[in-house]
Amino acid sequence: MFYIVGLGLCDEKDITVRGLEAVKGSSRVYLEAYTSILMVQKERLEVFYGKELILADRDMVETESDDILRNANTEDVAFLVVGDPYGATTHTDIVLRARALNIPTRIIHNASIMNAVGACGLQLYNFGQTVSLVFFTETWKPGSFYDRIKENADLGMHTLVLLDIKVKEQSEENLARGRKIYEPPRYMSIPQAISQLTEIESLRQTGILSPESTLAIALSRVGGGLDERIVAGTLAELLAQPPEVYGDPLHSLVVVGKRLHHLEVEYAEQFAVNRKTWRDVARRMYGCALE
Fold first, then answer.
1. Whose CB among 4, 36, 129, 207 lies 3.0–4.6 Å from 82's, allowing a Cys bridge?
2. Are 133 and 145 spatial neighbours (Cβ–Cβ below 8 Å)?
3. Which pLDDT value is given to residue 167?
4. Residue 56 and residue 104 in contact, taking contact as beta carbons nearer than 8 Å
5. How is residue 185 annotated by DSSP?
6. One domain, residues 31 and 75
7. What sequence ranges are listed for the domain Tetrapyrrole methylase (predicted)?
8. Distance between CA 92 and CA 107 in Å, rounded?
């Protein structure tokens, strides 16, 4: 059996009982280590699970999947992912590869940012499409995410924006020369994300991302840990905050849609940079009936 096991969002104790049983019964256990990061070290997982973990980077998952799946039709093999197994297309792909080889598969679900984002007070059924925001370069500034945000905005829906991470990435020169030299890890910050959003807004000029009148909520390390951070405000307010306000990565950003309920406003108000501004913008620009 090939198990894909979700680890949740916080630490080694977030694994489900069913997931832990699968890990303990597996002959090999892989830890996918590039689509996201867990908030604890690999060694803590190994102690808690009682198993040695094999780190599976992008190269291994994308080019050496046959080795990961080796003998999984006659023995149990576990593949661990942060959050939920279906949180990344990579995991769907490896399931399809396993099934093409007639290897039985079992998915063990867990919490992910897709549902944990509800911690900010916005109701999950008011979210539209989720988008990913990649690091811009001098020559590459893709704006396709903006179209998805606009589609959500036109329906009044909130948008969850997942911020880019770069782990075990190669520079263009090292990639071209075939040198296995990797860049230091990078994690997109909230201010950088907002700067990129407003940069594309300045080109498109549809008005869906107005710094002074668009509400947003920044989230960091969501999952119930002591270092979880949630900060709400206008885009301009969030952009002006010092980096330490947002804590350590990983970070996400929610662009608030116009179908905003007064209970959402009141719940998220506790996280606001300025409560008066938060309520005022919600009332004037979003049409919320507030006391």
1. 36
2. yes
3. 74
4. no
5. P
6. yes
7. 1-238
8. 10
Residue that finishes a domain, picked among 111, 140, 172: 111
Which residues does 278 contact at the CB level (< 8 Å), separation at least 6? 215, 232, 233, 265, 268, 269, 272
Q: How far apart are CA 119 and CA 281, in angstroms?
A: 21
155 and 260 housed in the same domain: yes
Is 112 annotated as belonging to a binding site?
yes
- Positive or negative, the Cα torsion across 125, 128, 134, 136? negative
Mean pLDDT of the chain: 91
Q: What is the DSSP letter of 253?
A: E
Q: Is 118 annotated as a binding residue?
A: no
Question: pTM for the full model?
Answer: 0.92
Name the band, by pLDDT with cuts 50, 70 and 90, for residue 246. Answer: very high
Distance between start and end Cα atoms, the chain: 57
Residue 41 pLDDT greater than 90, yes or no: no
* Residue 155, both tokens: 């329906």
Q: Are residues 105 and 118 in the same domain?
A: no
Report the pLDDT value the prediction gives residue 151, as an integer from 0 to 100. Answer: 97
Does 263 show up as a binding residue in the annotation? no
pLDDT digits (tens, 9 = 90+) for 179-191: 776 677 889 999 9
How far is Cα 32 from Cα 1, in angstroms, rounded to an integer?
18
- Provide the domain limits for residue 21: 2-111
Q: Count of domains in the chain?
A: 2
Q: 66, 89, 111 — which closes off a domain?
A: 111
The response to whether 113 counts as a known ligand-binding position is yes
Please check if 87 is assigned to a binding site.
Answer: yes
Within a domain: residue 57?
yes
Q: Is 188 helix (H, G, I), strand (E, B) or coil?
A: coil
